[in-house]
UniProtKB/TrEMBL annotation:
This is Uncharacterized protein. The lineage of its organism: Eukaryota, Sar, Stramenopiles, Ochrophyta, Bacillariophyta. Transmembrane segments: none annotated. The gene is RabX2. Residues 219-229 have a biased composition (Polar residues). It comes from Phaeodactylum tricornutum (strain CCAP 1055/1). One of its GO terms (molecular function) is GTPase activity. InterPro entries: P-loop_NTPase, Rab, Small_GTP-bd, Small_GTPase.
Length: 229
């Protein structure tokens, strides 16, 4: 498609997306697989407290965009006090469960969707359901049918991924960011095409992990996390 809808010579728009789901489902591994595709799965990812984000360029049908991917670093129970910061200006969310862990799937409806509704302007937020650990088919506890039902209920798409093999990892992030970008372009058009999407982005085009610690979250999002959206 020749439509360069991102606005010619300008920098690609930056969109914040957040990872959500129980501890252990593979959120950090999925982000690591996306940003460092050649590195083998790290079975001992050190858990710092707080929030981390990585930035990654991604392709969409309407040009390149930069995704700023936020992930809870460490135990998800700490995320509760950080939720407002976590969701602030987010345009998309990846809801992750582990296909070998029924409890992690139930948590989506019982916990994570409720938190989304409490803390995020949900009209604005594109959602994607991801069932991770598809390489562990023999231990599957959550059927695809069950996950599809959930998707229909909440009006979102789903994919099964493996952070271990890499299956569908890039596709998942591209799918979500594609929806986010489409929505932004649509609202840009309806406002006369002058919306300041993205703007100058923080970080570099390579993956630059950054950590926001508990103490720093009051001012988070103001410097390197400049979303401008
Ligand atoms: N077999 C398999 N293991 C995975 C996969 N994704 C993550 N893991 C493992 O699951 C554990 C938790 O992963 P982690 O990314 O820390 O989960 P998080 O707490 O949601 O960030 C780690 O031991 C990972 O190596 C996957 O797709 N397949
Ligand atoms: Mg993690």
């Amino acid at each position: 498609m020749s439509n360069r809808a991102t606005g010619g010579a300008g920098k690609p728009p930056l969109y914040k997306i957040v990872m959500l789901g129980d501890s252990g489902v593979g959120k950090t591994s999925l982000v690591a697989r996306l940003t460092n595709p050649d590195r083998p799965l790290n079975h001992d990812i050190s858990a710092t407290m707080g929030i981390e984000f990585d930035t990654q360029m991604l392709d969409t049908p309407h040009g390149k965009v930069k995704a700023q991917i936020w992930d809870t670093a460490g135990q998800e129970r700490f995320a509760r006090v950080l939720l407002p910061t976590y969701f602030r200006k987010a345009k998309g969310v990846i809801l992750v469960y582990d296909i070998t862990n029924a409890k992690s799937f139930e948590s989506l409806a019982e916990r994570w969707m409720a938190q989304l509704q409490d803390h995020a302007s949900t009209d604005d937020l594109a959602k994607l359901l991801v069932g991770n650990k598809s390489d562990l088919e023999a231990s599957r506890e959550v059927s695809q049918e069950k996950a599809q039902q959930f998707c229909q209920e909440y009006g979102m798409e789903m994919l099964e991924t493996s952070a271990k093999s890499g299956e569908n990892v890039l596709t998942s992030f591209e799918r979500l960011i594609g929806i986010v970008h489409d929505r932004a372009l649509t609202s840009q058009k309806s406002r006369g095409g002058i919306a300041g999407l993205g703007g100058p982005s923080g970080g570099t085009s390579s993956a630059t992990p950054a950590t926001v610690n508990l103490d720093e979250t009051k001012g988070a999002n103001t410097d390197s996390a400049a979303c401008g959206c």
